[in-house]
Amino acid sequence: MNSLSTYLIISALLFSMGLMGILQRRNLIGMLISVELLLNAANLNFMAFNRFLAPDPVIGQIIALFVMGLAAAEAAIGLSIILALYRKMHSINIERAQRLKG
Amino acid sequence: MGALFHDPILLAIVLGTNLPFLSMAVILLFTRSNPKLSSQISVGAILVSAVSAIYLLAKLHCASPLQYQTLWFSSDKLLIAFGYYLDPLSLLMLTIVGVIACLVQIYSLGYMAGDPGYSRYYAFQSLFAWAMLNMVIAGSMLQLFIYWEMVGLASYFLIGFYYEKWSASQAGKKAFVMNRVGDVGFFLGLIWLVIGFGNLGIPELNHAAATQGLPQHVLTVAALLIFCGVIGKSAQFPLLTWLPDAMEGPTPVSALLHSATMVAAGVYMFSRIFPFFSASPDAMAVALAIGTITMLLSGTMAMVTYDLKQVWAYSTVSQLGMMVMALAAGGYFAGVFHLTTHAGFKALLFLCSGIFIHEFHTNDMRIIGKKGGRRLKIPMACIAVGALALSGVFPFSGFFSKEAILGVLAAQPNKIWLAAALLGAVMTAYYSFRLIFHLLFPKDGIEEKQHEEHGHSSHGHEEDHHGYIFWAMAIPVMILAGVSLVLGFVEHPIEHFLIGHIVEAHPVAHGAEHGGGEWLMIMGVSAGLLGIAVAWFEFGRKGASRKGFLSYFPAVWKLFDRRWFLDIFYRKSLDTFVYGGLTSLFTKNDRRVIDGGIDGICFFTEGSGRLFSFLQSGMLQYNLLMMVLAAGVAVLYLLF
Amino acid sequence: MEMAGFPILTAILSTTILGLLIIIFIPPEKTKLIKQVSLASATVGLVLCIWLYYAYDHQKGGLQFVERILWVKSLGIYWFNGVDGINLPMMLLTSIVLFTAIWTMWELENRVKEFFALIFLLVAGVYGVFMSMDLFWIFVWYDVSLFPMYPLIAIWGGTRKEYGAMKLTLYLLAGSALILPAIIYLWVAGGAHTFDLFELQRIGFSAFDQKMTFIMLYLGFGILAAVWPFHTWSPVGHVAAPTAVSMIHAGVLMKLGAYGILRIGMTLCPAGAQYWSSLMALLACIGIVYGALVGLAQTDLKYVIGYSSVSHMGVVGLGLATMSVNGINGAVFQMFAHGVMTALFFSSVGYIYDRTHTKIIPELGGLSKTMPIASSFFIVAALAGIGVPLMASFWAELLVFIAAVKVFPVGGIAALVGLIISALFMLRVVQRTFYGEKNPKWEHIPDVSGFLAVPRVILMSIILFFGMFPKIMLDVIQSTVIPFVNRF
Amino acid sequence: MDTAGLDILNQAGFWAMVALTVAGASIAIFPRNILYNVLGLALCMTAIAAIYVFLGSLFIALMQFLIYVGAICIAIVFAIMLSRPLHLEMPPRPASKVAMATAAAVLFFVAIVGVVLKTDWTPSAARVADSSLWSVEAIGRALLTRYELVFEVISLVLLVAIIGAVITAGLSRRLSS
Amino acid sequence: MTDFMLFLPELFFILGAIVFFIFSLRKKADPAAYHKWAVVIGAVGLLVTVAASRQGGMLFFDCYRVDLFSQVFKVLLALGTIWVIFSSGELKGIDPRQHAEYYFLIFVCTLAMMMLVSSVELLTIYVSIELSSYSLYLLVPMRRKADEFVETGIKYFMVGVTASGLMLFGISLLFGMAHTTYIPQLIQTLPGIISQPATIIGLILALSGFFFKLALFPFHIWAPDVYQGSANQVTTYIATASKMAAAAMIIRFTGLSAGASPGMIKLLIVLSILSMTFGNLVALIQKDIKRLLAYSSIAHAGYMLIGILALSDRGYASAIYYAAAYLVMNYSVFMVIMKLADDGHNLQIKELAGLHKRSPLLALTLMLGLFGLAGIPPTAGFMGKFLVFAAALEKGYLFLVIIGMINATISLYYYLIVIKAAYLLKPVNELPAVQVDFWTRCMCVVLVVMTIYLGVFPDQFVLLTEAAAKTLF
User: Fold this and answer.
1) Which DSSP string do the residues of C282-346 spell out, in sequence order?
2) By CB atoms within 10 Å of each CB, which of B379, B583, C306, E434 scores lowest?
3) What is residue E137's predicted lDDT score, i.e. its pLDDT?
4) CATH code of A92's domain
5) Range of the domain at A38
6) Residues 6+ apart with CB under 8 A from E12
């Protein structure tokens, strides 16, 4: 259990699942949720390195903390954009937003 | 500059040769709109040239060759000199050219009167005179080549003088291109010499050749290549067809360029570097064969045409072939002498014909005869003198030169050349007198009534300016007739003058002269008389058929009339290989393959732009997928 | 910093740039003034170039009138100008062609200001390339001279102008896609961080570097020199371009290509040039014959001239390929001669086109009757094109062929045969355009006026002058070429 | 309990949390009902918070729980309510898209696992086993010294987010006026 | 006090942000006044930045380094910002009621990027880049009447957060390997552990965030849509100022590997080639100028990377030069676009027809800008390309340079199409002359002179960039 690799693989798993969500969810909110998974995977990495490798455990924690803050801000912005889109397009299905291409 | 004025000889050369150029420039730039002034300038200039030529001939009569030379430019080890080389040959030629050009220009005052291109005509005449005179006294082969080309250029302009006539411009082009073919060979020969020998000075070349200073392979190849130039310019065998076409030009032009002087330039060049040529027996053999073929071929052509000028054109080719034969057989003097006499009588013949043409506005000998050609007494007499000279009848000049040539040929081990020459002499006499008899004794007598009308209309014409125009034409003709009469009797002075200094260097040139005996003279004369007799039988006597024996052989007639199909052959091969073949092939290649390839690359680029633009689909997740995949591949790449 | 007195080269360059600036500030309506200013500044340039030519000491040879200032220190770029026997004729040529081209365009009415401004920009580039002895600046000027071509052709051009302009511009700049890497490569390989041509020459390069960069330079510059098979832009571009642009383009710009090969390629990579010389000769010979043969089938006057340029530039290429004094002498001389000659060609065609609005040969015909003077200009140019002696190009061809027959006998002889074809096709054009029956359609057209004849007469007399006195040019050229070749 | 027992318990707890994490993540991305997804996210976040405890930082675990579950998930729920995605039509997913997404994800997973396994993870030489470093005070001190700038900037980030969210979502006072 | 002085430019932009924050709280919007304020603040900000450009020192416990490198970029950022603000006078693409927020976000974004270029600590960098990204995420969907372009904002956002997720993951790996977040320390430790996969992959993933900003293949996917979909001024800002920071950070991060990883260099070469080729090829078929410029920016990212991946001082210097030149030229083009599309619509290429008559000055500016982008001498763009290629060739990347030059030729085609439209095409309907006010005229002249001057007299700028590159490590 207490090996670094375990944590890293969990984080890799989370990261991949996040990516998969981003790539296949059509619901924008679903995509946003998947993005949160990405950030969490990175956070988990920081915490794991913090625990096993770093000289000073403060750094990882603080990074994780800030990332959470940023994630919150990001979620707020993302949601507001999604809402704006919804009001104009009456849908939050990303597959409907295909006007710009080529 | 100073030397120019202190040396009267140099002054004479420079003035004599370059005044015509000046006159051309003045005419083209300033006096185009004043025909009279133009002609005066031009005639004045050529008079100076003629006079200075005669002066030089007289002054340097017995002197050793004179050479003026200055460096034109140098490139690397190649030194190109500009200079004059005055030896008997060039002095003789200078005089011939100067005098005949002068006579022709005077003649033209009458012949060309009233032509819209009068000024232009004189400009080109001056251009020609300048180029020809310079070519004659050029000190090096390169310089000779340059003026040689300029002469060709003048010929191009003069042939195409009536450029609104399609055939005239076509003939000009043909003349230029055919000459070009020969000239490229000549040019290559010069390059070959530059590479192999390094010097193009005429005395140097001759000296080196005579003293075996040149490697044989360089010499033979160079001689053959240079001989290509002779073939082109003097209308020898494969390239002979341009000259008859060149008769599209005004008659004085034909007289001057295409019989007396310019076409003789090839022969002149041959004799110029005669020692060089004769150092290569192979080249001489080729030249002999080509000369013979030319002479016979064009003789046959002359036998069937009814065009006055064509007859003399073919005859010119034929006589040039004869000169080449003479030279190639080693008869330096015979060749040059024939060149001299031929210049006189052929110019005479053309100018006389010109008077007829001018009078009757046709070239057809039958029509001229019918309309009363023989009424024009002076030209009729003169043309008869010319024809006699051409046929080699004693005591006209042609007799002497022809005898000399026969003598040279008789000295050849192979007698076939002699036989050919005799055959040629028969033909010459035949076609000359065929023409004369056509004029004198037209088929159905002279159409009096028509002539009355014509005479009447031309009477007023005569009264208006017949005097001036007629005499402007008649006087040169008479002078030339006189020359043709007397020239033969100065054979020995000329021979002495020409050979005097060469004889030691090259014994062949002299020795061949005395190969003949009495019987040769008899044979020559009888050949001429035979031809005349046949012509008399067919055309001259009362009740003659006036058809010519060749008309009984239609196939042969056609062959001769169509110039042995040479033209058709050239036309066809040009059309097939150049226009139809390479040109269209290359044009297609240019359009389709090269340009098509370039355009194809552009289309491909733009097409791939369209293709790539699908990567940027409107669907966000596909884009993201691409991005993630690319990142993943990058990570994997770095991992392994 | 080396400055020898008055910077005359910079002064020549600045005549064009000053002209450009002045024109920019003249209101576009004052077309007369614009033309006058243009002609005046071109005249100044011409006078300076003639003086330069006169003042150049060919006994001494070498690089003279040197101006050398460090421009970009960290890269070793110098403002380094000088003239020697190779670029001096080119400078003279440029000034002549510019002067006559501007005069030729005197009747232009459409967007005059922009036209002359762009012309000056173009010529600034050309002067720059010729005078500069710094690789960087050569390249910069090279590109400067190329891109005004686009608007010049696309705005004022004729047949298929946009296509021609785009094709030409892209084609030529594609060439520079090879030149720039090659130049930088040399800079790197030199190791001394200098773009100074002579520094680099002193340093020398390994055989491999030379081979590689030379072929890149050859292909890159070769495109501009219309080396077969990269020539197709040239006829298309010429057909599309307006008269003055054709004059400058065929007269001067195409020379930039050959000049680049000589100045950069052969100077810095002699071994490379040696290595590739057979290829160069092969392409050049093909170009000579091919250009003439294709020209034979054209029906557009400018196409004909375009293809004749391909053929004549082949002669230049052949001369360079021989790597011998005569060959290079001839090549440089041919550049000059061909420049003047094509300028005359296009100038005379330009007049015909301006008046008849066609340059399709079958539609013309019999022009000699209606406009004898205009025709005679073309005919003289055609004769020069044929290589008639006593015209400048004859000497050039003579020297080139002497060298070529010696070094590449087969190719040289084949190329000589091309001369026959070139005679055929030039005369064919002359015959069909100017000879024959008077065409009633063009009867009312006036002949060239005395004023407009001046530039053509100038060009004509230059052709004849250097045809009669080649020494004046050859002495200058070979003062540089002989030491140049001795290095091989 | 002895340490071994504690350890086993510890282990079991850890793996349970891992399982919960994965399960939560799966619920967050796979079901098509967006509310399940949010709940899955909340579950996943909570489990990760627990894992943070295993990694020695109770403080971060707490923050994780607060911020994610308490703030982000709630915000998402609000957004869901506002945009009523539940009533949207759901055409079937294109199989190719899912397949490619899976492939990309698997690729990435393989790649990162490869990185993890191939890398020689060495602890820092300067590492000291001082438990005081894990205290909240240490975090606080670092926040006000070393991360002072970040700490200040994050406030700006939040300000931007607030203003931006307000205007973007169209809730501006001026818009309504 | 000296610390304060070092931080002065940033403080000034914070001030700007605060001012507009206050404005945004006011009930009545006054766009004209906002514009004047913004111009004044931006201009003073530029002056302050220039004044502070020769300063150096460390701030905030060594998280923040003020050196020539950062200051050069700050000047570029301030320049880009003031230019964008200058052109925002007719901000028709954004609802007048949101103008205060617009300026606020612009100032914040500039501030964030200024901090970005000075940060030498990973977390600071990450937070700064996020701050700037968030500002842009919010600026993009501000566009009014954007029914066509509603999806722009979300696309930008989604790509952005994905890239930032990758970046964060990369940073975590870097942290795991090097145990530190300080760049100076990373510089020391990384060469020793660069052979470990996690290091190099962490570096690449961390770079991806900046690649996203620079719109480098394969992180370019947002660019065409965002350029097309956002208001002209916002596009300009994204295309000019925001590229500067990205370039700076790519230089900083790529330099971390110190050339010890051939794999990474190969990867960068491939990315650069793909970016150039893709951008140029797709740009060939565009009709909308902004979209075309988006693809051109993708291509330019590739060129810039050529200089960077040389991993030499000269390379970094060339990339800085390139970035500066790119700023000037790109802004020239965008300014003309903004001026012509003064009602805020998206300009199509064919709408340029007859521009040379409607406004010769604008046409000239546009032409020089485009020629600059195409890399034709004597413009700054040529010098930039030249320096970049020189740097790459010094490392022997001949093939890469040739591809770059071929791409430059391809790019010329579409630039020429635009120029052709401006100079050759006849407009369908005669349009009136464009009203160009005095300041815009001045700006045109300034831009033209800068484009030429940078191209012809590059010496001092090259020296400056080289000095800046030397302070990097």
Assistant:
1) HHHHHHHHHHHHHHHT--BHHHHHHHHHHHHHHHHHHHHHHTSHHHHHHHHHHHHHHHHHHHHHH
2) E434
3) 92
4) 1.10.287.3510
5) 4-101
6) E41, E44, E45, E48, E49
Mean per-residue pLDDT, B161-189: 87
* Nearest C-alpha neighbor of E409 from the set C264, C167, C230, C256: C167
Give dist(CA B573, CA B567) in Å, integer. 10
Sign of the torsion formed by the C-alpha atoms of B411, B412, B418 and B421: negative
Mean pLDDT of E335-352: 87
Instruction: Kindly tell me the burial class for residue B124, based on how many C-beta atoms sit within 10 Å of its own C-beta (0-12, 13-18, 19 or more).
Output: buried
pLDDT in tens, E276-317: 999 999 999 888 999 999 999 999 999 999 999 888 888 999
Q: Chain E: residue nearest A45 by CA? A: E172
Q: Which residues contact E227 (CB under 8 A, 6 or more apart)?
A: E235, E238, E239, E290, E291, E293, E294, E297
- When CB atoms are compared, the residue of B606, B620, B639 closest to E285 is B606
Indicate the burial class of D22 (C-beta count within 10 angstroms; 0-12, 13-18, 19 or more): middle
Which of E356, E378, E420 faces C162 most closely, judged by CB atoms? E420
Q: Say what the pLDDT of residue B511 is.
A: 43
Residue C420 to residue B188, Cβ atoms within 8 A = no
Q: How confident is the model at residue D164 (pLDDT cuts 50, 70, 90)?
A: confident
CB contact under 8 A, E137 and A55: no
* C370-383 core/surface letters (b: 16 or more CB in 10 A; e: else): bbbbbbbbbbbbbb
Q: How far is B639 from chain D (nearest CA, A)?
A: 7
Chain B residues with CB inside 8 Å of C293's CB? 578, 582-583, 586
Q: How far apart are CA C255 and CA C249, in angstroms?
A: 9
- Tell me the domain boundaries of chain E: 2-470
Q: Are residues D108 and B635, on separate chains, in Cβ contact within 8 Å?
A: yes
Query: How many domains is chain A built from?
Result: 1
What residues pair up with B71 in beta bridges, in sequence order? B81
Write out the DSSP string of B376-428.
-HHHHHHHHHHHHHHHT-TTSHHHHHHHHHHHHHHHSSSTHHHHHHHHHHHHH
pLDDT in tens, B544-570: 777 777 777 888 878 888 878 888 888
Into how many domains does chain C fold?
1
Q: In which residue are the tokens 């001012």 written? A: E19
Tokens of E274: 């793909």
**D97/B621 Cβ within 8 A:** yes
Distance CA B303, CA B3 (A): 54
Q: From CA C30, how far away is CA B274, in angstroms rounded? A: 69
- Kindly identify which residue of chain D lies nearest to residue B622, measuring between CA atoms: D97
Dihedral pair phi/psi, residue E26, rounded to 5°: -70, 155
Chains with 3 or more CB pairs under 8 A to chain D? A, B, E
Q: Which residue of A has its CA nearest to B615?
A: A102
Contact E108 D156 (CB under 8 A): yes
B-chain CB neighbours of D107 within 8 Å are 629, 632-633, 636
Which tokens is A97 given?
């937003």
Q: Which chains does chain C touch, 3 or more C-beta pairs < 8 A?
A: B, E
* DSSP string covering E438-463: HHHHHHHHHHHHHHHHHHH--HHHHH
Q: Domain range holding C243?
A: 2-486
Residues of E in contact with B631 (CB under 8 A): 166, 204-205, 208, 218
Contact D104 B625 (CB under 8 A): yes
Instruction: Determine contact: A13 vs chain E, CB below 8 A.
Output: no
Query: What's the mean pLDDT in B79-93?
Result: 86
Nearest to E197 among D118, D160, D164 (CB): D118
Smallest CA–CA distance, residue C431 to chain E, in Å, is: 37
d(CA C81, CA E231) in angstroms, rounded, equals 49
- Global ipTM: 0.87
